[in-house]
Amino acid sequence: MTAWRLVALATVGLLLAAACGGASTDSSAGSPSPTVGTPAGSEEVSAQSAEPERAPAEAEPAAAEASVIDETLALDAGEAAPSVDANVPAEAPPEPIGRPGYTRYVYTLAGGEVVPALVEGPRGQQIRCQVEALPCSFDDLVALRDSAEPLPAELELSAAELDGLI
What we know:
Elements: H1 3-19, H2 47-50, H3 61-66, E1 105-110, E2 113-119, H4 138-146, H5 159-165
């Protein structure tokens, strides 16, 4: 091998070792990580202490979406409640709330004010058919009605309600 190739390989190795230094699977969390590329006789600095501390990892998005509770439904109660399903409450919440596809109202920050960005569906709890294995399309629902199979509990739908939808 040529000298340049050796230098290039050593550089790549050092970069990989530095990048992976804090991701050790070693169970000895209290011991410092091994040092990388420290000349003999110089002060050693562990790779772990050179990395900034990170906040704990947040839940996976899919898990978070499955547990979303529509906190915006409380806006439909009281004197500020809208008189029509398509309207927003008379008073905006103090801070942005809501998630498109998961809550009835979505409020966002625009020009320093909390403003309505989206109103979804009629008032009340909504059942969203977002699991591919469930019969969600019109054709699937017709086939389900015509079959002798029981309705999936996740749809929270009675046979009479299914007939009304179709």
